[in-house]
Amino acid sequence: MTCNPNVQSVLFAVASRRRNEQTIGRIANALEATFQIPPGSHLVWVLGDGSERNNREALCTWTRRELRQIDRDVAARRVPELADRLHRQLTTWDLDRGAMA
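RE: above sequence
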């Protein structure tokens, strides 16, 4: 029995999100220990968006937000390199294709 491609996509997305949340949790744990952030809710308004119940959830929100920003910053800096790599790949493919003709 084969799985519907749409179902597979959804399952992959769910698994990927779960892994991302686990990674965020591990990073937040490390930051919490490193900065000795105590239990409580006093950092919710500093680190979170106000919907968190405690410092731990606020730190997870902050970590998630910062990682997204880092991803955008890194991606923006990598675009010229990616364009160069794509150009080389397409040039190589075009040359290879011409050699086969």
